[in-house]
Amino acid sequence: MPDFSKLPVHVGIIMDGNGRWAKRRGLPRKMGHKVGAETFRTIVRYANRIGLKYLTMYVFSTENWSRPQDEVDAIMTLLRNYLKDVDNYRSENIQIRFLGDLSVFDEDMQRKMAEIQETSKDNTGLKLNLAVNYGGSSELTMAAAKLAADAVKGLLKPEEITQQDLADRLYTSGEPDVDLIIRPSGEYRLSNFLIWQSAYAEYVFMDEILWPDFKPADLDRALEEYQSRNRRFGGI
Questions:
Q1: Known active-site residue 16
Q2: Which of 16, 129, 133, 179 is catalytic?
Q3: CB atoms near residue 171 (< 10 Å)
Q4: Domain ranges of the chain
Q5: Residue 99: other Cβ atoms inside 10 A
Q6: What pLDDT score does 90 carry?
Q7: Residue 181: pLDDT above 90?
Q8: Does residue 41 or residue 79 have the better pLDDT?
Q9: pTM (2 d.p.)
Q10: What CATH number belongs to 10-227?
Q11: Of 64, 101, 123, 165, which is the active-site residue?
């Protein structure tokens, strides 16, 4: 078991393998996403219970729109259902934040996301980030555009721009950088997820498990692996 008194402050999870999980069982890919959504709920509640401070879940990337339309539609339906279900989290003291370009979603979804963020902003438990229509490269482009606009307005001088200035214009503004990235399914890449925030993150890749089968014990195993490493941040 990990030492729950020495948890990483910020964990990111790439929820990968839903489609392959379904294919192995002869099911349509959307069934993998449905089971994966249940796994998501389980892991979020467990993370809150053990005292994790920040958890960012990669729900839907900017690249995922290129998937078959029926699969995209199924994911959007699950997201809508989650937005309806989120009221059940109120008693759990979880603060929820949406990362990404939300302007592409239907107006009712945008309103619900804004409402969820507003009504949960004072909660003091787990800070849960949901990365939806999110891409790390587009996030950095957006932040750079904001810096340029502020420079044109005379609010800052280009030669005086700092890393913190850029970080303050990211979706995760005000949050600590990521300590640990977890990716099940056997893929060994970041897939455009939190590419600025994870500059010094530890990575735990899990070959033998797909996201729908991911259990709290698997999160514990990743936390144990994290705690076994010597984090030097470029030092010795």
A1: yes
A2: 16
A3: 21
A4: 10-227
A5: 22
A6: 67
A7: yes
A8: 41
A9: 0.93
A10: 3.40.1180.10
A11: 64
